[in-house]
Specification:
CATH topology of the largest domain in chain A: MetI-like fold
Structural class of chain B: mainly alpha
CATH class of the largest domain in chain B: Mainly Alpha
Radius of gyration of chain B: 24 Å
Largest sheet of chain B: none
Mean pLDDT of chain B: 84
Oligomer: heterodimer
Number of domains of chain A: 2
Strand content of chain B: under 5%
Strand content of chain A: under 5%
Helix content of chain A: over 70%
Chain lengths: ~300, ~280
């Protein structure tokens, strides 16, 4: 407001006044969006990081990083990274195969509409609800658990790495399955455009030159798809790493880092502990930063092929 | 691998048989947990098979009403939050995108960057930061749930941005506005009766995606200890897992239908353009 009025006051004379005023008014059009993202995106992110770097009275400290010497915190970080990496690699491979299989379907056909919609639901909106589905599938009285037991006499929960920690599904190893369930659809969403970008002419060119389909895959398709594939894998890692809802709905113990953060936040009445989620957030941001840096480097390589 | 009259396959497209087999297996594998969820939702208590509607009947039972009160309240909150979030997108995001397209084209990349940023900031990190922000906000407003819309609006940004952006880049906004201006319309009239009607499809997709995100949102509500649909479901899971599963399945199907609708509308549009 004050900016607009001073700009108008600078040029009191005649027609000249309207132009700068309109220019300022134009910039003011961005003000709501800028203010909103500043208050609800920039400030919370900075506050989260800042709370990890300050003491109770608000002065700067690095002492909170001592949280990373806590065995349970380290274990949760390790669990998160290992689970996300395993899920990312497995989902990337399975998802890529599905993308290639989907090439046989009509691009605008019903099947693609269904697959796209289902992928988005499972990849992005499921969270808690997918946890319920897996309790009904792999929980101690789940459909799959009972079927394996009755048909093959096989106890699914005997696969659990830690037999004292309850059913497989509620352990890190068991979370692999629901995580796979929302990561494969994400791979299909992210990787499908790259697969569709393979031009039919390239296949024809290889065939004209007498190359087999194996050669086509080895020398054309795979090198072209590789950067997008690795980029998508990294994105899957990031998505699994920061996923909270499924793990929170399935586990009570803080076995993954987002769950640990929420539990520490819940017990902030204990003096000083409110800064622990902040310092864990820094840990997450650092890991995500590394991952995103790798992603953008790969995307730049991928862009060379997608002209 | 059929020989005969069909030409040899080249390129990446797999054989019909192989791809059908792969897709059917994948379809079954993905449907199985949802089938399990549905089967469980209608099972008689304590049994592992059978079908009953008793659990749904319990929803209307006044004696057990207290169990479901939180879920109903959560659903109401989520609906209000969804409406407010859609309004926020229309008030904050849309004008900025149109303005950037019309007059400050260099800013388009910045807006895109800001809108896609929430993908790379983990929601839990944002949620940790929202706690002190909301402590201040709630001092002014009291602990009401609909204000969560401001926080959830941030994680909605990428989903709202993409369809609007796709719609805008399919239009020639500058030519449209020049035409409108040369016919004597002012900026306001140009935007209101020329640009906005052309953006209806993008706005509709953005609004529907926003509703989907809000209905599925759990992290922020859980960190800020507010009652929404998802937190209500998570709580009800302990008291009455059958009804919780019914609602979960219904919500998944509802969001699926919304997205299928958007997808079908999109590909119909493409088909219509194709013959020209």
């Amino acid at each position: 407001m004050t900016v607009a009025s001073t700009a108008a006051a600078d040029r009191p004379a005649g027609a000249g006044a309207s132009k700068p005023r309109r220019r300022v008014a134009g910039w003011l059009g961005f003000a709501p969006f800028a203010a909103y993202t500043l208050v609800f995106m920039a400030i919370p992110t900075l506050l989260a990081i800042w709370s990890g770097l300050t003491t109770e009275d608000g002065s700067f400290t690095l002492a909170n990083f001592a949280a990373f010497t806590d065995q349970s915190v380290l274990k949760a970080f390790l669990n998160s990274v290992l689970l996300s990496a395993a899920v990312a690699v497995a989902a990337a491979i399975i998802g890529a195969v599905l993308c290639v299989a989907l090439l046989a379907a009509k691009p605008d056909g019903l099947l693609r509409v269904i697959v796209d919609a289902a992928s988005s639901v499972l990849a992005q909106f499921g969270g808690v609800m997918l946890a319920f589905a897996f309790i009904a599938t792999m929980g101690s009285a789940g459909v799959l658990t009972l079927w394996l037991r009755d048909t093959f006499g096989f106890d699914l929960n005997s696969l659990a790495p830690d037999p004292t920690a309850g059913p497989l599904l509620y352990q890190v190893a068991g979370l692999f399955f629901p995580y796979l369930y929302f990561s494969i659809p994400l791979m299909v969403i992210v990787f499908m455009p790259a697969v569709e970008g393979l031009r039919p002419q390239w296949g024809e060119a290889v065939a004209t030159l007498g190359g087999s389909r194996l050669r086509y895959w080895r020398h054309v398709a795979f090198p072209v798809l590789a950067p997008s594939f690795f980029g998508a894998t990294i994105l899957l890692f990031a998505s699994a790493f920061s996923s909270f809802a499924t793990a929170a709905a399935l586990t009570n113990a803080g076995i993954l880092i987002p769950v640990v953060m929420q539990q520490d936040l819940g017990s902030e009445t204990v003096s000083g502990i409110a800064h622990i989620p902040g310092v864990l957030a820094i840990g997450m941001v650092v890991i995500m930063g590394l991952v995103m840096w790798a992603y953008s480097a790969l995307q730049r390589r991928a862009a060379r092929w997608q002209r | 691998m059929s020989r005969g009259s069909r030409p040899a396959r080249v390129g990446a497209t797999p054989g019909k048989t192989l791809s059908t087999v792969i897709l059917v297996i994948a379809g079954l594998a993905f449907a199985y947990p949802l089938y399990a969820l549905g089967a469980f939702a209608f099972q008689p208590v304590g049994q592992h098979s059978g079908f009953t509607l008793d659990h749904l009947a319990a929803l209307g039972d006044p004696v057990r009403g207290y169990q479901y009160r939180q879920l109903w309240e959560g659903i109401q909150n989520s609906v209000v939050i969804a409406l407010v979030t859609v309004a926020l997108m229309l008030v904050f995001l849309l004008p900025a995108m149109i303005l950037a397209e019309l007059r400050y084209r260099r800013l388009r990349q910045l807006i895109e960057f800001v809108c896609l940023l929430p993908i790379s900031i983990p929601t839990v990190v944002l949620a940790v930061g929202f706690v002190p922000v909301y402590q201040q906000v709630w001092k002014i407003t009291g602990s009401v749930a609909w204000i969560l819309a401001f926080a959830i609006g941030i994680i909605v940004l990428p989903y709202a941005f993409r369809p609007i952006q796709a719609n805008i880049s399919g239009l020639d906004v500058v030519t449209l506005s020049e035409a409108s201006r040369s016919l004597g319309a002012g900026w306001f009239r140009t935007v209101w009766s020329v640009i906005l009607p052309n953006l209806r499809r993008g706005m509709l997709s953005a609004a529907l995606l926003t509703v989907s995100v809000v209905l599925g949102e759990y992290t922020i509500a859980s960190f800020l200890q507010q009652n929404t649909f998802q937190t209500g479901l998570a709580l009800l899971q302990h008291a009455d897992p059958y009804v919780a599963s019914t609602f979960a399945l219904a919500a998944l199907i509802f969001v699926f239908l919304i997205l299928a609708l958007i997808g079908a509308a999109g590909s119909l549009g493409r088909n219509r353009k194709a013959p020209r």
